[in-house]
Amino acid sequence: MSTTSIDSLQHEERRFPPSEEFAANAVASSGLYDEARADRLAFWAKQSRELLHWHKDFTQTLDWSNAPFAKWFADGELNVAYNCLDRHVLAGNGDRIAILWEGEPGDSRSISYAELTAEVKRAANLLTKLGIGKGDRVAIYLPMIPEAVVAMLAVARIGAVHSVIFGGFSAESIRSRVDDASAKLVITADGGWRKGKVSALKPAVDAALAKEGTHTVENVLVVKRGENDVDWVEGRDLWWHEAIADVDAEHEAEAFEAEHPLFILYTSGTTGKPKGILHTSGGYLTQTAFTHKNVFDLHPETDVYWCSADVGWITGHSYVVYGPLANGATQVLYEGTPDLPHPGRWWEIIQKYGVSIFYTAPTAIRSFMKLGREIPDAFDLTSLRVLGSVGEPINPEAWVWYREVIGGGKTPIVDTWWQTETGAIMVSALPGVTIAKPGSAQVALPGISIDVLDEAGNAVPVGGGGLLVVSEPWPSMLRGIWGDPERFKETYWEKFGTALFEKPKYFAGDGARLDEDGDIWLLGRVDDVMNVSGHRLSTAEIESALVSHPIVAESAVVGAADETTGQAVVAFVILRSDQSEMQTADEASALLRTHVSDQIGAIARPRQIFIVAELPKTRSGKIMRRLLQDVAEGRAIGDTTTLADTSVMQIISGQLGSTNG
Ligand code: WTA
């Protein structure tokens, strides 16, 4: 979907006027735009004080003197967990439900703010008892159960730093993340429910920690969820429910500096090694709370909010944990897959809880579209009033279907552009404010400066295309890459750095276009990052997983357009010369698909692997992925004039007839 031509989409009939019921929001939002335009820093300082509780107020809003290393609200002090929990209880909202949890097999739990606060206090005491202190790193590898939220908040409460690892990642991926961050503790579960059965988690942690070399992990804390049998390492492993039973229930939240690290979240970049994106406390919480409140027009007393993202991704951090809880929202948390035990499960959950704000990814919407509208039509979805989309550009067909079938033709859709690195939403329509244009993320939020620039750093004219840039620092911006300040500067700040501008601008890695109204249309990544079902994968990371297998001599990976997942992983592999005779292409391809899954996780498993004799390269030896993408998408092969050997593409396309599959 990343290559959708926008010219074909800008028809007048595709525009939806703002809904009148959001008139109040429209007035409030236009005030925010005015304030932010008048004084951006004063605007953020005011938002931060209004939305958060500061144990110690700040005097300075932004320090950008050491760009690109920003400090926001630097001399202020706060406790992130206190902001998400205690203060709501103290304000008299302890009985309000924080989490309406729904397990995949149909079990459920409802947890009030008072109960969640109590649970996090105990967990904080438990962590302290296990020797975790301020600044220590804790890896979290859990299913979507309330303990995932409790664990993250408990880590934050004591000033430790969490690194959540998505439950679909392999032992190899766990180990590299644990090692990179030198984690002292891993919090996991025996298993969780996925796709109708228990999927074990602890064995992957065991395997990760059993790998060669020394690691820093002292304990593994295990939540019982799947009831599956697990191996046990005496002295290292502890059951969560046993360990938490005998700790004190009282815990006072200590205040930490605004720039104290909150979490590291690994994400794919253009090299083989995932980057540990670092977020800190005060600025991150300010912008997640601000965006969650304003983009979704949240009314915490009456709304029931649901974001379908897993806590293993940034969307789960910002819009399941920190944003909604900072705002005192009531939210649904669902453990399992969308289609179990029946394909209407999500709609049944919306009906059951009266969900009013729903935030999901285009890939999910497209899957439901394929199944047909009879499925959602069988449920009462009239409680919905705002719908959100995130993860990739939403194609206009899916946008219209989402609004008509799920939103009953009346709900605004907020298409939210942002990244792991930006920490919170940056570009989005606001409910009731903007004329909605299916497919366009539309406008920068108040207090956010977005530009579309050409390679030379000039703003593109209206109607033009270029690179998306954030031109002023923002509160929830990443503060660095864990342990690698050079990579941080190179990746994000050099392209539009001080050679072009007095202060560097943030290069997002996305292409974008401005239409005649100045609205932003995202066109997909311009670097070697793929977007599969809204999840980021790096071509280089999958290539290095492939070449780590002894039968592989060389590989090239591309993201090919895919109707449901947006993009799909397609690999081209040259086998070692002594191997090509030993296995058929089908055998090698099956073996390598499994290998990638073992190395990274099932989400990275290639849809197809083509065993080829050559790869197209330029004279300087760079693989021309663009040509492979043409092949993978079944297009006529583009310009081959820069190829070192122009016959190679004919060879590849000729070969594919026989190895396709
Ligand atoms: C893409 C997910 C178009 C984009 C929050 C970005 C989008 C990458 C949108 C970040 C959107 C996310 N429209 N593209 N509304 N939202 N993207 O770090 O390419 O997992 O750079 O963060 O997803 O992915 P990440």
What is the third-level CATH name, the topology of the domain at 533-656? GMP Synthetase, Chain A, domain 3
Low-confidence stretches are: 1-13
Shape: globular
Classified by CATH, the class of the domain at 533-656 is Alpha Beta
Annotation, overall tally of beta strands: 30
Q: What proportion of the residues form beta strands (DSSP E)?
A: 15-25%
Q: Which small-molecule ligands are present, each listed once?
A: 5'-O-[(S)-ethoxy(hydroxy)phosphoryl]adenosine
> Helix/strand/pairing class, anyone?
alpha/beta
**Main sheet summary:** 8 strands, mixed
Proportion in helices: 25-40%
CATH architecture designation of the domain at 533-656: 2-Layer Sandwich
Radius of gyration: 24 Å
Q: Overall pLDDT, averaged?
A: 93
Count of separate DSSP helical elements: 20
- Tell me the name of the CATH homologous superfamily of the domain at 533-656: ANL, C-terminal domain
Distance linking N and C termini: 22 Å
Strand order of the largest sheet: 12-11-8-6-7-14-15-23
Describe the structure.
With 661 residues, this protein is α/β, with parallel strands linked by helices. Among the domains are: 466-522, no CATH class; 533-656, ANL, C-terminal domain (GMP Synthetase, Chain A, domain 3). Helix content is 32%, strand content 22%. The chain is built from 20 helices and 30 strands. The strands form eight sheets. Strands 12-11-8-6-7-14-15-23 form an eight-stranded mixed sheet, with helices on both faces. Helix 1 crosses helix 2, helix 2 crosses helix 10 and helix 5 (113-129) packs across helix 6. The longest helix is centred in the first third of the chain and has 17 residues, at 113-129. The radius of gyration is 24 Å and the shape is globular. It starts with 22 loop residues before the first helix and ends with a helix. The structure holds 5'-O-[(S)-ethoxy(hydroxy)phosphoryl]adenosine. Residues 267, 313-315, 390-393, 415-420, 441, 508-510, 522, 525, 531, 536 line the site of 5'-O-[(S)-ethoxy(hydroxy)phosphoryl]adenosine. Residues 267, 313-315, 390-393, 415-420, 441, 508-510, 522, 525, 531, 536 line the site of 5'-O-[(S)-ethoxy(hydroxy)phosphoryl]adenosine (WTA).
